[in-house]
Amino acid sequence: xxxxxxxxxxxxxxxxxxxxxxxxxxxxxxxxxxxxxxxxxxxxxxxxxxxxxxxxxxxxxxxxxxxxxxxxxxxxxxxxxxxxxxxxxxxxxxxxxxxxxxxxxxxxxxxxxxxxxxxxxxxxxxxxxxxxxxxxxxxxxxxxxxxxxxxxxxxxxxxxxxxxxxxxxxxxxxxxxxxxxxxxxxxxxxxxxxxxxxxxxxxxxxxxxxxxxxxxxxxxxxxxxxxxxxxxxxxxxxxxxxxxxxxxxxxxxxxxxxxxxxxxxxxxxxxxxxxxxxxxxxxxxxxxxxxxxxxxxxxxxxxxxxxxxxxxxxxxxxxxxxxxxxxxxxxxxxxxxxxxxxxxxxxxxxxxxxxxxxxxxxxxxxxxxxxxxxxxxxxxxxxxxxxxxxxxxxxx
Amino acid sequence: xxxxxxxxxxxxxxxxxxxxxxxxxxxxxxxxxxxxxxxxxxxxxxxxxxxxxxxxxxxxxxxxxxxxxxxxxxxxxxxxxxxxxxxxxxxxxxxxxxxxxxxxxxxxxxxxxxxxxxxxxxxxxxxxxxxxxxxxxxxxxxxxxxxxxxxxxxxxxxxxxxxxxxxxxxxxxxxxxxxxxxxxxxxxxxxxxxxxxxxxxxxxxxxxxxxxxxxxxxxxxxxxxxxxxxxxxxxxxxxxxxxxxxxxxxxxxxxxxxxxxxxxxxxxxxxxxxxxxxxxxxxxxxxxxxxxxxx
Lengths: 396, 295
Fold this sequence. Notes:
The structure holds two protein chains of two kinds.
Chain A: H1 4-26, E1 47-53, H2 61-79, E2 88-94, H3 99-112, E3 116-117, H4 123-126, H5 130-135, E4 140-142, H6 149-152, E5 158-160, H7 165-179, E6 183-188, H8 192-207, E7 211-217, H9 226-235, E8 239-242, H10 246-259, E9 264-267, H11 274-280, E10 288-293, H12 303-313, H13 321-338, H14 343-352, E11 356-358, E12 361-363, E13 376-381, E14 388-392
Helix pairs in contact in A: 2-12, 2-13, 7-8, 9-10, 10-11, 13-14
Chain B: H1 2-28, H2 35-52, H3 61-87, H4 95-117, E1 122-123, E2 132-135, E3 138-141, H5 142-164, H6 166-176, H7 178-183, H8 188-214, E4 216-217, H9 221-236, H10 241-262, H11 267-281
Helix pairs in contact in B: 1-5, 1-8, 1-9, 1-10, 2-3, 2-4, 2-8, 2-9, 3-8, 5-6, 5-8, 6-8, 9-10, 9-11, 10-11
């Protein structure tokens, strides 16, 4: 006797086998899929790209920014006739910035038959999904998550098109030196992204001769950070680097200022969001700067792109809209170059990209699959709107 | 000194929430795990009222007090409603059933708020003026003073109700002996409803205060503070009102010193370790043993 689940599974596998046979029969030459691409989705129908992003939880604001950015690129490519006549399709799943949810969602994407992943926002949630995509033969072009841990695994299919923590920390150190700060501090929130960025900042800062006199870790999700605020006011580093997200960042800025801290508050890209100023409150953001990859509103000549985005999303683009847009274009370009959706060929094509035009400048991957140029800039908060605006592009 | 002051500020939030915990436990022996979410509801009730009137970025104390009163009435009524719907039908059931129901209520509230207000943290539209000044080696802000005064005021009012009024007397009587109290003509259901109203109103007030002081609210904000308030109630002696106040302040101080010594990421480890220590060595809490009459 088969249980209901077993019967269901058996029916499924028969259906899958039938489908595979039909597909293989129809696969005479063409793109030459060898059937071992795992979730390659065959050569019929749309090419599915999967995206994991947070649509719930504390980081949910970013999910839509990423989704619409990617969708915009897909619409444009499809309007141009797709890739060799095949349309692209975006499959979105919610990872809630949570490892458990992300693993489940990644498995779902693989079952859905995606050929590449263009998602990944929280490094902590993206990390456990890497082996799942790797095993399924799905290359990943990660638009937002940027922990060094992601590429340290040495998986062949992982590419980061957002600068890594190392590159972001480098921008922070460069700015500290440029502004003449010698005594610096760093606060992280114990998440993988944040701790990694903080460590990079400390290592590079020390190497550059900065005096790191303050290092602290806080627990995300609390309201009261008076302990770290008090310490900050006592030590008074000229510049303190907050590497966590905007909710805690806004609270810490406010509480540290109230406690009497007077230095510059530099925040990482996870905190760069208009909500930051709202949470910190008016009058608390004069000394707040951020390290950030450029967003469309900071880029000259992006007005048309922004208008297209607004038409699609019904709202303004936000952080990682452009990166997600670029991730789709990078993957599409690689699939086109490879002439196949097969894992090895796509990966080789990604590695072979040279000066591909993206929002963050010409893109070429280094040997460890990160960007050859970081593209990080320094942003500050516009007191009138609370939005982050370009302050210093760190060029020269 | 600064550590003590920081601890007292956090402690006053814990104390306000712990009072409701303790009162409910004192009278019907229920650990109301949804109590922290009432605190969250208070913050969101204030947020909704302010948004409805289109108020943003104000720093007015009278306005805050009005909003707080409105939120207190709202959360008070919600508390009574929860008791009526979720707890009263189970009053004769095993204690475990009620405990699990309380956890269910907690999730219901959290995710209902998420559905209504969305999952993102919201900025609270009214802020307290927080220009600071230095006093006796401490950095004190106007907001903190307002906060402590309001918290102390609420606790005094509560003490007055419990000690001096008829319904307070009735509460103490039920806490001591529910059947006996009923025989003496006390309307037990009404008194329990009153207790839920007062406890929930206090938590709601704390929620609004937290919104105005910290400036950011989200739908899970009640979870940790609920556990902390429970810890505070245990440390002070659960079921004892003065114990709840003392426990709240003490827990605030412990955390403040704990995070200064071990670092901020150890704060929760430190306070919940204390909960375990207390449960192991002095389960009745600091004031639990001395005071026979509970309420």
